[in-house]
Amino acid sequence: MSANALTYLSATLKLASVKPVHPPADITEVRIGEPVLNAEALAELRAACGTEYVSTERLDRIEHSGGKSTEDLLRIRAGDALGAPDAVIFPASSEEIREVLAVCAARGIAVTAFGGGTSVVGGVSPLRGTFDAAITLDMRRMNKMLHLDPRSRTATFEAGLRGPGIEAALEPHGFTLGHFPQSHQEATLGGYVATRSAGQASTGYGRSDDLVKSVHLETPAGPLVAGSTAPGTAAGPKLLDVIVGSEGAFGVITSATLKIVPVPTHKSYGSWSFASFTAGAEAIRRLRHEGLSGDLPHVCRLSDSDETASTFKLGGPKTAALGKYLSVRGQATPALALFLWEGATKETAARKRRSARILRAAGGIPTGPIPARAWEHGRFSGPYLRDELLTRGVYVETLETSATWTSLDSTYHAVREAILKSLAEHGGTGYVQSHISHIYPDGASLYFTYLAGVESDGLAQHARVKQAASKAIVAAGSTITHHHSVGTDHAPYLGAEIGALGLDVLRGIKNTLDPAGIMNPGKLIPAAIKEQP
Ligand SMILES: Cc1cc2nc3c(=O)[nH]c(=O)nc-3n(C[C@H](O)[C@H](O)[C@H](O)COP(=O)(O)OP(=O)(O)OC[C@H]3O[C@@H](n4cnc5c(N)ncnc54)[C@H](O)[C@@H]3O)c2cc1C
Known about the structure:
- Helix content is about 40%, strand content about 20%.
- The protein is built from 19 helices and 19 strands.
- It has helices at about 5-10, 40-50, 60-65, 70-75, 95-105, 165-170, 190-195, 200-205, 210, 240-245, 275-290, 305-315, 315-330, 345-360, 370-375, 385-390, 410-425, 460-475, 490-515, and strands spanning about 55, 85-90, 110-115, 135-140, 145-150, 155-160, 175, 210-220, 220-225, 250-260, 260, 265-275, 300-305, 335-345, 365, 395-405, 430-435, 440, 445-455.
- A hairpin with a 4-residue loop joins strand 5 and strand 6 (about 155-160).
- The longest helix has 23 residues, at about 490-515.
- The model is unreliable at about 530-533 (pLDDT under 50).
- The chain binds flavin-adenine dinucleotide.
- The site of flavin-adenine dinucleotide (FAD) has 39 residues, from strand 3, helix 7 and strand 10.
- Flavin-adenine dinucleotide binds near residues 181 and 192.
């Protein structure tokens, strides 16, 4: 992290220093419990997958003790892997998973599916629920593209294939999935489908749940294929939608068929500045409503004034000069929007020109292609700073929601204020910045990043702020998660969104597919299945 960034952080957060004072525990010091799986259970699991693919090694268990949520990071940095699974299993096929689930259901062993482990909501914490033992199923060996239909533009992948592997398999055939979440380098196809992830270009390509055609799910009750290759169907309710987003609580996704598109050969970059976040959001709404639908940019990101200020401060001399230019043009606290039009022809430039008319009419000032190019260049690197920031005593967290165009502004202010108030509760100074990154006909996503000095009890600080923000989201009538999914963190708020009967419907489905309740206990559905009457 640059000296400039550190100075900016310590000044903004009013920290005495941002020296590396909170180093993570050495791996040899990490505390981990004794595995409780008995010899018979281990023998049966080994018979299902092969001895070398059932690991009780300390390092494997530590690596699978959590994902990438702030709580996960704080715990592991403090040397706490006490919740690690008893064994980590690396299956190679649907049949092996079927056998593993049969052993676990018969013996009462909790099962957590693990893709890239990038969950930021506690999704891969190997909770035991009402069971004594827990295993994690790491999907990394199921990493192939199984089928490509270039004429119909669909491809079938095994669930453990990571983002770069998906693109590497499609690229020689001239196709892309077009799905690039910020976790693209680590996250897997199964993880995308299980969490309904949204990529950075989802405005153009659609979210993962828009792309899925069918899914093969292994459940304790048997295999289930949901969805079909039919381009359209009226064959009853869309069962696929129940499986997509099921977060490993109903079964293990072993493969899925998704829509693919030709690799774009042309890209046009643009950025526009607006007098405020509210003005920028209104401009984007007009772009969505007044423009031709084909003109919409694939990437559409609007930063609020705080995020724009950080970009100008940390982006080097060119972006700093841009900030000064906008100030002279009367935008004292500008909100910067980045756009990227992708396509197979030079038509992207014409789409950009037509969009420019709307953005100018909405009060925007064009600021050229460089900010969007710079964002694309560094778009996967930002999150890697999280660990360094924690080492330096800086707490950083993100959360997200979405709101209709009508309630976007009020939701933005309510959540922002709730976070700032909570950060300040113990006398600290917090900083919140936000952006829109996915737009829909009826509204947009809101993504918040907040920073503060780590308090003496970082876990309590995190729980407090997250709860305050979540309550503000619920009170605003917005969704508890736009793309991070439910996991453990959002499970207490799911009832407010889908109602008590909605939760019962989910429990009913779980009871059918997973009667013993072994699949990912404590995630998605708030109460453990066994506690239900
Ligand atoms: C730095 C960073 C950036 C991120 N950026 C984005 C972003 O831009 N957009 C976005 O949507 N999300 C983002 N996320 C969140 C996360 O990456 C996504 O939720 C992603 O889809 C998870 O994929 P994964 O393979 O890592 O799943 P995991 O973290 O391994 O698992 C997530 C959940 O899915 C379940 N699961 C995983 N594989 C399977 C399977 N085969 N069958 C059944 N259940 C399964 C797990 O049990 C768990 O409940 C980000 C996370 C990080 C750390």
